[in-house]
Amino acid sequence: MSPRVVLVGPMGSGKTTVGRLLADRWGVAVRDTDEDIERAEGRTISEIFVDDGEDRFRELERAAVAAALDAHDGVLSLGGGAVLADATRERLAGHTVVFLRVGLSDAVKRVGLGTSRPLLLGNVRSRVKALLDERTPIYEQVATFSVDTDGRSPEDVAEEIAVAL
Ligand code: S3P
């Protein structure tokens, strides 16, 4: 079994919302690795970062991505940092991976200045900028193709992906 499409991209790129729309449209299940981790751990992502640190979260994330890639045939959304792991990038080869591109302003608007995402605490705008700069080349490397999401509704983005696949 293999997901029909894997969505990658930064926080605020719309992976969760676009993933749900695609899954509804195709009548398949949607899976999100952050939700898998929270369910398995019985804790939120923020609690895992606070209690055990980012390294432990990344271990859990690598395992969650591996399990989902092996056992899920619907739409799969990965947490924004999942592609940082070499093992995850290797596993993505051969899958249809869509990178949801987003610029700084739209990403900040979508996550909101009051976000509880642990990596964005402090100055949201400068943290988002640093993550976009660091990770955009990695998303480009793993993606089969990418879709621009700036200024567009999730419905519009899902439509473009569905037409392309
Ligand atoms: C992270 C993104 C989050 C979540 C965690 C770390 C990241 O997922 O996995 O807070 O490193 O970019 P979303 O991209 O779904 O917000």
UniProtKB/TrEMBL annotation:
The cofactor note from the UniProt entry for this protein is: Binds 1 Mg(2+) ion per subunit.
Q: Which residues bind ATP?
A: G12, S13, G14, K15, T16, T17, R117, R152
Does this UniProt record's set of keywords contain Iron-sulfur? no
Q: Which InterPro entries match?
A: P-loop_NTPase (IPR027417), Shikimate/glucono_kinase (IPR031322), Shikimate_kinase/TSH1 (IPR000623), Shikimate_kinase_CS (IPR023000)
Please give a single GO biological process term from the UniProt record: amino acid biosynthetic process
Q: Which domain of life is it from?
A: Bacteria
Q: Name the cofactor(s).
A: Mg(2+)
* The keyword Transmembrane helix appears for this protein: no
Under Pfam families, the record lists: SKI
Cite the GO molecular-function annotations of the record: ATP binding; magnesium ion binding; shikimate kinase activity
User: Pathway it acts in?
Assistant: Metabolic intermediate biosynthesis; chorismate biosynthesis; chorismate from D-erythrose 4-phosphate and phosphoenolpyruvate: step 5/7
A single cellular component GO annotation:
cytosol
Listed A to Z, the keywords are: Amino-acid biosynthesis, Aromatic amino acid biosynthesis, ATP-binding, Cytoplasm, Kinase, Magnesium, Metal-binding, Nucleotide-binding, Transferase
Q: What is its main location?
A: cytoplasm
Q: Which residues bind Mg(2+)?
A: T16
Q: What positions does the entry give for substrate binding? A: D34, R58, G80, R135
Q: Which HAMAP family match?
A: Shikimate_kinase
Q: What family, per the record?
A: Belongs to the shikimate kinase family.
Protein known as? Shikimate kinase
Q: Which gene does this sequence derive from?
A: aroK
